[in-house]
Amino acid sequence: xxxxxxxxxxxxxxxxxxxxxxxxxxxxxxxxxxxxxxxxxxxxxxxxxxxxxxxxxxxxxxxxxxxxxxxxxxxxxxxxxxxxxxxxxxxxxxxxxxxxxxxxxxxxxxxxxxxxxxxxxxxxxxxxxx
Length: 130
Description:
CATH architecture: 2-Layer Sandwich
Strand order of the largest sheet: 3-2-1-4-5
Structural class: alpha/beta
């Protein structure tokens, strides 16, 4: 099964393509404040490198956090949109072995349907000033 992975909790974003637990391709790039502008392009680049398209993806694992508020929101939004549009399962995972845990979760038949970020603490949102 072709599994796509997304991790956007740090300035260095990561995406990968796996065939079950075998890594086919993995890419990192310095996304910083340009994650929203670069993530779709990098996904296409990674898939093109393997002569694949999005329809070949059969499941998604996304890093849930903790991490950057904006980075997690962007990466998880992209992962949720891909899973929904392709009609495939998505699972959230945390910690250093997030990919292995995510693969095990998918193999157990889990599907989170929609992933919500875990920030590790309440987000610090400044109230608007008038």
